[in-house]
Design a protein that fits this description.
Layout: E1 8-13, H1 17-32, E2 36-37, E3 46-51, H2 56-72, E4 78-83, H3 84-88, H4 90-94, E5 99-103, H5 111-118, H6 127-136, E6 148-151, E7 162-165, E8 187-194, H7 205-209, E9 213-214, H8 217-229, E10 234-239, H9 257-266, E11 274-277, H10 287-295, E12 302-308, H11 312-318, H12 324-336, E13 342-349, H13 356-368, E14 373-378, H14 396-421, E15 425-434, E16 437-442, E17 447-451, E18 460-470, E19 473-481
Parallel strand pairs: 1-2, 1-3, 3-4, 4-5, 5-7, 8-10, 10-11, 12-13, 13-14, 17-19
Antiparallel strand pairs: 6-7, 8-9, 15-16, 15-18, 16-17, 18-19
Helix pairs in contact: 5-6, 9-10, 10-12
Length: 506
C-alpha cells in the first residue's frame, strides 16, 4: 500500500506491440480502480508481467522479469503472469517465486473483471477472495466454454497457484481501456487484429494467439476518435498479422483489401494527425492496400516487413509464401509514390540450411530494396516446430556472426536513408523538450532533434531534415508547428521496438 492506503501496481511488458497495447489497457483499468503505479519491478503490491514466447530468448526474459519482481519487489508482492509465455508454459511460470496467478491468452480478456473482484483489498489476496474474483470473472474451474483453472503439481515452489488456461488461445473480443482514463500519450497504440493462420516452420505464434480475428470496424473508429480527443497525434495500429484485418468477417477478399477500406475511413476523422502501421506480412500487401498507402497523406510513409530472408529456397524452407520478386514489386510500388517511404525489414540469421550464398542474398536484398533499417534476430530453435527438426543446422557462433554482420549493415542503411532525407521537409511528433531542444519521431520513423523556443511535447512540427548525428538520430531545422496538443502534459511516447528506451524487447 502507498501512503494513502491505496494498492500499488507495476507492469512489465515484453515482446510485441500487441502486448504493449494490451498492457496499456490493463494499466487504465488498474488506475480506474484506484491503484497507484510505480516503476517495475516495484516494490508493488501487484506486479503484472505480460510475457512473450516468440523465441526461446523471449521466454527466458519473461522468466527473468518474474524472478526480478520477486527478488526486488519484496515478500508482499503478488505476481500475475499472463500472455504468450503463460500460454506456452503455464505450469513453469506458476512454479516461479511469488506468482499468484497465471492467465493464458484466452483468459486475459477477462482481466478487467478479475481486477474488479480484487479491488479494493490487500495483496496478496486471501484464497477465498481470489476464488471469488475468479468466479465473478468466469475463470473458475468448470469446463465447457470457460477456461480451466488447475493447481500446479504438488511439491512445486508455487504449489496451489491457480492456472487459468485453455488450449484454444483465441478469446472473444479485444481488451479496451477503462472509460474515463485518458491515454495521455502523444502516440496511441490500438490493436485491431489478433491471431494468425500461417504455418511458418519456425514460429509458435499461431498456436499461442489462436485463429485470426478482427476488431469490429465501428469499435476501431470509435477508439481512434477517443484517442484523438485525448490528444494523441499519432495512432499506431497493431495486430499479430495486421494485413489479415477483416478477412474473418466474410468471403475471402483480395490481400489487404479490408485493411485498405478501414484506412480510407480513418482519413475522414477530424483532428487525426497521422496513422502508422506496424508489421505487414508481404503477402497481404495487395494492390488496394499498396494504393492506399501510397496515396494517403494521413498514413506515415513507413512500411515494416517481416521478410526473414532474401533467398527463395530458404523462404520456402521457412514456409514463407512470397519470394524476392514480390518484395521488389512492393518496394517499387512504394518508391513510385514519391512519398519517400521508409522500408524496415525483420531478418532471421542462421536458419537451418542457410548457406553462405543464401546469407549473401539476404545482405544484397536489404541493400537493393532499399531498406531504411533492419531488425535482426539470430535463429533459435523452438521445440515442437517443424524447423527444429530440419537438417543443416548452423552453429550458434556462426548465427551470432551473421547477426552481427546484419546489424553492421543496419547502421549503414540508417545513415544512407538519413542522407536521402537531408534537405527534405518532414513532420516530427515532439516527444520531449529540454534546454531549448526538442526530440521526436518523423513520419518516416527517423528520430530527429532540433532547436526551438516554445515547442511542447505532443506537437507536430514541420521541419527540414539535416545532418546525421548518429545512425539513430538526425538533426532537423524547424519550419513551423501545428496546433498544440490539448493536454497540458503528454507522457513519453511508446518507444519503437528495438529502439533505445524500449524495455523488454527481444
Amino acid at each position: 500500500m502507498d501512503g494513502h492506503g491505496r494498492a500499488t501496481f507495476a507492469l512489465a511488458v515484453l515482446g510485441c506491440r500487441a502486448n504493449q497495447e494490451e498492457s496499456e489497457a490493463i494499466r487504465s483499468h488498474l488506475t480506474a480502480l484506484g491503484g497507484d503505479e510505480i516503476g517495475f519491478p516495484g516494490p508493488a503490491d501487484l506486479v503484472v508481467v505480460n510475457t512473450c514466447a516468440v523465441t526461446a530468448t523471449a521466454l527466458a526474459q519473461s522468466r527473468q522479469a518474474i524472478r526480478r519482481a520477486a527478488r526486488l519487489g519484496g515478500p508482499g508482492s503478488w505476481i500475475l503472469a499472463m500472455g504468450c509465455g503463460a500460454q506456452l508454459d503455464p505450469r513453469g511460470l506458476a512454479a516461479l517465486p511469488q506468482v499468484g496467478l497465471v492467465l493464458g491468452n484466452a483468459a486475459k480478456l477477462k482481466v478487467p473483471a478479475l481486477l474488479r473482484g480484487l479491488f479494493p483489498g490487500s495483496f496478496p489476496p486471501e484464497q477465498a477472495r481470489l476464488r471469488a474474483a475468479l468466479a465473478a470473472a468466469g475463470l473458475a474451474a468448470g469446463g465447457g466454454e470457460e477456461a480451466e483453472a488447475a493447481p500446479v503439481q504438488a511439491g512445486e515452489p508455487a504449489a496451489g497457484s491457480p492456472i487459468c488456461w485453455q488450449a484454444e488461445a483465441a478469446g472473444e473480443g479485444f481488451l479496451s481501456r477503462a472509460a474515463g482514463v485518458s491515454a495521455r500519450r502523444a502516440r496511441g497504440l490500438l490493436k485491431i487484429q489478433d491471431g494468425c493462420d500461417r504455418a511458418c516452420s519456425y514460429c509458435v505464434v499461431a498456436s499461442l494467439r489462436g485463429r485470426p480475428r478482427s476488431r469490429p470496424r465501428g469499435e476501431v473508429l470509435g477508439e481512434v476518435r477517443r484517442l484523438v480527443a485525448e490528444g494523441c497525434r499519432e495512432i499506431v495500429l497493431t495486430g499479430i498479422n495486421l494485413g489479415l484485418y477483416g478477412d474473418d468477417a466474410g468471403p475471402p477478399a483480395a490481400p489487404g483489401a479490408n485493411l485498405a477500406s478501414l484506412l480510407a475511413q480513418l482519413g475522414s476523422i477530424p483532428g487525426l494527425g497521422r496513422v502508422r502501421l506496424t508489421s505487414l506480412e508481404p503477402e497481404t500487401l495487395g494492390p488496394e492496400l499498396l494504393e492506399v498507402l501510397a496515396g494517403s497523406a494521413w498514413l506515415c510513409p513507413h512500411v515494416h516487413l517481416p521478410v526473414q530472408s532474401g533467398d527463395d529456397a530458404l523462404l520456402a524452407r521457412m514456409g514463407r509464401p512470397y519470394r524476392r520478386e514480390d518484395l521488389r514489386r512492393i518496394a517499387a510500388t512504394l518508391a513510385r509514390s514519391g512519398r519517400g517511404f521508409a522500408l524496415g525489414l525483420d531478418l532471421l540469421a542462421g536458419f537451418p540450411g542457410e548457406s553462405e550464398r543464401a546469407f549473401a542474398a539476404t545482405l544484397a536484398l536489404a541493400e537493393e530494396l532499399p531498406a531504411a533499417y533492419l531488425h535482426v534476430f539470430p535463429y533459435s530453435e523452438r521445440p515442437g516446430t517443424p524447423a527444429a527438426r530440419l537438417a543443416g543446422g548452423i552453429p550458434p557462433a556462426e548465427r551470432r556472426a551473421r547477426a552481427r554482420a546484419l546489424r553492421d549493415l543496419d547502421g549503414r542503411l540508417r545513415l544512407r536513408f538519413q542522407s536521402r532525407l537531408r534537405g527534405r521537409p518532414c513532420r516530427v511528433l515532439v516527444e520531449r523538450v529540454e534546454g531549448g531542444r526538442f526530440q521526436g519521431l518523423s513520419a518516416e520513423y527517423v528520430r530527429m532533434r532540433g532547436t526551438a523556443v516554445g515547442v511542447e511535447p505532443g506537437e507536430l512540427l514541420e521541419v527540414v531534415a539535416g545532418e546525421s548525428l548518429s545512425p539513430r538520430l538526425q538533426s532537423c531545422r524547424l519550419i513551423c508547428s501545428g496546433p498544440p496538443a490539448p493536454l497540458p502534459e503528454i507522457a513519453a511516447a511508446v518507444p519503437a521496438a528495438g529502439e533505445p528506451g524500449s524495455r523488454w524487447q527481444d
